Amino acid sequence: MSSESKAAYAWVGIVVDALLILVGVWMISRGWTDFGEILVGICVVGLGASIVQLWRQRRRPADG
Question: What residue segments make up the domains of the chain, in order of their start?
Answer without folding.
Answer: 3-59
